[in-house]
Automatic annotation (TrEMBL):
This protein's UniProt keywords: Membrane, Transmembrane, Transmembrane helix
Keyword Transmembrane helix applies: yes
Lineage, broadest ranks: Eukaryota, Metazoa, Spiralia, Lophotrochozoa, Mollusca
Record-annotated membrane-spanning stretches: 12-45, 82-115
The keyword Transmembrane belongs to this UniProt entry's keyword annotation: yes
Protein name: ABC transmembrane type-1 domain-containing protein
């Protein structure tokens, strides 16, 4: 009877470990996809506006309005910084979600194993 109970415990632990591994892998894949999508979308946004910005800056420089041209460059730099901060914020949120999911799953596994 004790062997059957030990076998049941072993099966439960193995199943829970497999579930934890699958959940972690799925979460990591989702994180990677989200980060790649954010980076690609931000890159496409900047590429789409690049030609227009360069034309505007060139025209301003040709008109000898250097201070306006510098202001435009500063605005572009600030926009790039904001996009970078958004990307970092998304990555931080996703990492926090991963950690919370892993901790919850580990706690559930420990509680279930202790209850068996």
């Amino acid at each position: 009877m004790e062997r059957v109970r030990d076998k049941e415990r072993y099966v439960i632990v193995v199943v829970l470990v497999v579930v934890v591994v699958v959940v972690v892998v799925v979460v990591v894949v989702v994180v990677v996809v989200v980060v790649v999508v954010v980076v690609v979308v931000s890159f496409m946004f900047f590429q789409a506006n690049r030609a227009e910005r360069l034309r505007g800056v060139t025209q301003l420089l040709q008109e000898q309005q250097l201070t306006v041209g510098l202001q435009v460059e500063l605005n572009e730099l600030m926009r790039a910084v904001v996009v970078g901060l958004v990307v970092v914020a998304v990555v931080v949120v996703v990492v926090v979600v991963i950690v919370v999911v892993v901790v919850v799953v580990v706690v559930v596994v420990v509680v279930v194993v202790a209850a068996v």
